[in-house]
Design brief:
A hairpin with a 4-residue loop joins strand 1 and strand 2. The protein has a single domain, classed as Glutaredoxin, CATH 3.40.30. Strands 2-1-5-4-3-6-7 form a 7-stranded mixed beta sheet. The chain is an alpha/beta fold and 166 residues long. Keywords: Signal. It comes from Flavobacterium piscinae. GO terms for molecular function: oxidoreductase activity.
């Protein structure tokens, strides 16, 4: 009986640890290459350095993603509610051309970068445990991850996290 109880407690501990929120990006994620709208390639680490000292809302999206497009009005509402935050849009569009068209077509306002590694099984997606887009991540002013995962821009955890950081 004791073995069963101990096994249950160990299993419960492992499950809760696997669901723990990450507070920083892996070395692999930070080293992954992305492209700015002017065509410059840089690492994710270089991008994050630009926004040190600010609350950053990361939106991982793609113009081909129906849920991303449906969620854009919620993102706009979030931007109106928290205009002091930086909105960092990381796209998994297939080409720079489709990415640029998507930004313009959907009037996406913020900082834009195209992720150069592939979506499924790519370095960045694996590093952030990406299983769905849109995906929102919030960084505090020190660059630590304050919220690791939200899939709706009106998620209460997302809103309260940003509110607490400002």
């Amino acid at each position: 009986m004791k073995k069963i109880i101990v096994s249950f407690i160990v299993a419960l501990g492992l499950i809760s640890c696997s669901n723990a929120q990450k507070t920083e990006f892996s070395k692999e994620a930070l080293a992954d290459k992305m492209m700015s709208v002017d065509g410059t390639e840089l690492t994710f680490s270089d991008i994050l350095k630009k926004y040190e000292g600010k609350t950053v809302v990361i939106d991982v999206w793609a113009s081909w993603c129906p849920d991303c497009i449906k969620g854009m009005p919620k993102v706009e509402a979030l931007q109106k509610q928290f205009p002091e935050a930086v909105y960092l849009f990381l796209s998994y569009d297939k080409t720079p051309e489709s990415w640029a068209k998507g930004i313009e077509k959907y009037a996406v306002k913020g900082e834009h970068y195209l992720i150069l590694s592939k979506w499924k099984g790519g370095t960045f997606s694996n590093s952030i445990d990406l299983d769905w887009i849109p995906r929102y991540i919030v960084l505090d002013k020190t660059g630590k991850i304050a919220l690791y995962r939200a899939i709706e821009a009106d998620d209460e955890k997302l809103i309260s996290t940003i509110k607490n950081l400002n």
